[in-house]
Amino acid sequence: MSNFVQMYACCIPVKGYKRSLIYDLQRPQNSNFIPNDMYDIIVDFRNKSIEEIKRLYQYQYNEEIDSYFHFLLENNFAFVLQKNELNNFPPLENIWESPSEITNSIIYVSKKNIKYLNLLLKQLSDLRCDAVQFCFTDNITIEHIHILGKQLELLRILSVEILFNYNDLLNISDMLSVIDKYPRIRRVGIGNCPQEFSCTDKRLYCTINQIDWENGCGNISSQYFSIGMEMFFESQHHNTCLNRKICIDMNGNIKNCPFMKQSFGNIKNTTLKEAIVKQGFKDFWFICKDNIEVCKNCEFRYMCTDCRCYIKQPANIYSPPSKCTYNPYITLWKHQKHYVPIEECGYFDKSFRFVPDYEKIDMLNKTIWGDKE
Amino acid sequence: MIVIVSQENDSSTNDVMDWLYAWNKKVVRINETDTINSFSLQIDDNDLSLIFRCGNKEFKISDVDYFWFRRGGFVFDVSFLTKIEPHFYTYLKEHLSDECNTMKDFLVYLLNKKPSLGNYYQGNANKLISLYVAQKVGMEIPNTIISSAKEDLLHFYKNQKSSITKFIQDVLCFNYQGYRYYTNTSLVEKNDIKKMRGTFFPSLLQKEIHKRYELRIFYLKGKCYSMAIFSQEDKQTVIDFRNYNDQIPNRYVPYKLPHNIEDKIDKFMHKMNLDTGSIDMIVTPDLKYIFLEVNPVGQYDMVSVPCNYYLHKKIAQTISNNE
Ligand code: SF4
Ligand code: SF4
Q: Of the candidates A10, A70, A84, which has its C-beta nearest B253's C-beta?
């Protein structure tokens, strides 16, 4: 028998240090971990028949190979094809492009700069920005939100998220009517609420925790992972947080990230368009996960949002995010048993590069996972 | 300036326009809902000048660099007619819409002299002509009969073994008293035909084609961007691994057609006078390519997005000569 099995183009295996992960870009929840051996077989022998693969392994691993292909077919990652179809199924082209100069934005709105809100909206719209997150650091009223919602209907901005801390001037039923009325207000998040509440479609969520405007950003957690075409391909060319992003911090400064020091002018006297073309504004846009220490060995690297503001070794811009609680060398999260931080799996050298200690990692994996030689 | 004729709710037009704006192109988009309320045309011995206005949208024919007919059409404003007596209304309305058609045809005639994409008069390609032309350029098509005689259908059925029936051109779809009615493609049993009267409204039967997968091909000025759709019905037979999940959802993946099929599609499109459109095909278990139909104004998002083809950008490049 000469069976050929090929991965669907939308099911892409990504290799990590210790295991691989098949990203199912069409059905994210179907994504699944696979051993690195399986990754090698999929990638190295793409156009070989199962028979031939077995032969190349000198018929030593027939059962394993069969079970791998069973797994791929059963999970609908792959399909069986005939020999003369092998050239009909090209992979997805690894490109990401956007007609928008800016695709996303975080705007801090305080009493001081609320008067610039309309101007900012107009400028973001002209840059063809898709998504904006507004953080209202001072009390806001329902009128503010109505004005914003109405304004949006005339603009290119497609989706808006509003965050603020609860105050007495607001009530939840008003908020529900707001999200009903303005479909472009995709999400309203309210902190410091008297009680927890969130509506079924999650467009309104209220938490009793105060929103922390100073330190809340930059967290890395599996709940922020996102598997999809856009993210997968953008992340291979660009930074998944900062690419095509423009932000306004609490003082009205125009920045790539609201928490970084570097400012490119103030909304009082600089337009967003002027800020973007200034030297250095786009520096972080092109730092992708494949360049980042540790992350480049992580199987989550094309679904993980990067952070370039809070990093382990500030002297090296390719240093991994400091708020990451995952260790790809032993595939454990901080909250899991046996977790140790990456610092115990290697060290940062003089130029702040991470040097894995392979022997130590092997040892750890033997104790944790019972790995064999 | 680029003139686009489209419909208000067509989001793929928006996506193409984003690219045009990114390249600072001047664009006027006329939607079907934009009724034309001002039109000025002057022809004299030396020259022709035409100014077209609807609402705040305006273009001079001499300024047009490219014409993209996406879908929809030009609609002239004859709403002022309602104020007149019903008897006059009927005649005048017909007369005025003929007059409008003459102006519209001339407008399209002039626009078509510009570099253009899309065929204004082929928004809904005749399905029978398409089948005929496809067969003429050497593509395989499903055997098809349209007849009003029971005997003919029975005879056809006997030869084809398994047949389906479907609309000849378009799907019928409407709501009535809270129910939704629509025509479907469905399998025909011999008894279904037997139950019919001797003669009836011409009905279409087509040989049932077994599919390995379907193809959706977006054709743009000589290039084919193809996608294979693996659907749930696809029961693999040639394999050892038999017992996998039946509830699998469709898979949409990029597909590269063999050159000879691409050539035939190219010939077909030329003969149909189309420079763009979406083509449906079936690939059979023995790897034959069967042509089904072409939709000149079909949605290409469903091909572009899963295949990462960036068709919006490619269309934008085509219509702005920015290749
Ligand atoms: S770089 Fe970090 S801190 Fe800055 S916006 Fe991104 S995640 Fe937040
Ligand atoms: S190491 Fe952490 S930050 Fe880096 S890709 Fe993996 S999960 Fe994300």
A: A10
Report if residue A297 sits inside a domain. Answer: no
Residue A254 CA, ligand 1 centroid: distance in Å: 14
Find the angle CA(A324)-CA(A330)-CA(A333) to the nearest 5 degrees.
Answer: 40
Domain extent, residue B222, equals 213-296
Q: What angle do CA A84, A89, A90 make, to 5 degrees?
A: 130
- Check whether A372 has a pLDDT greater than 80: no
Confidence of residue B235 (pLDDT cuts 50, 70, 90): very low
Please report, to the nearest 10 degrees, the dihedral formed by the alpha carbons of residues A189, A193, A195, A199 taken in order. Answer: -20
A345 Cβ closer than 6 Å to some ligand 2 atom: no
Say which CATH number the domain at B268 has: 3.30.470.20
Put residue A242 in one of left, alpha, beta given phi > 0 → left and psi -120 to 50 → alpha: alpha
Residue of B nearest to A99 (CA): B19
Number of alpha carbons in the 13 Å side-chain half-sphere of residue A216: 11
Entry pTM: 0.91
Chain A window 295-314: which residues touch B at a Cβ cutoff of 8 Å?
Answer: none
C-alpha of residue A328 to centroid of ligand 2, in Å = 8
State the average pLDDT over residues A283-310. Answer: 96
Cβ distance B310 to A69 less than 8 Å, yes or no, reads: no
Average pLDDT estimate for A156-178:
88
Taking only the tens place, the pLDDT of each residue in A327-337 is 999 999 999 99
State whether A127 and A276 are in the same domain.
Answer: yes
Question: How many structural domains is chain A composed of?
Answer: 3
Contact B254 A9 (CB under 8 A): yes
Q: Is A13 in the pocket of ligand 2 (CB under 6 A)?
A: no
What is the mean pLDDT of the segment spanning B190-206?
A: 91
ipTM here: 0.91
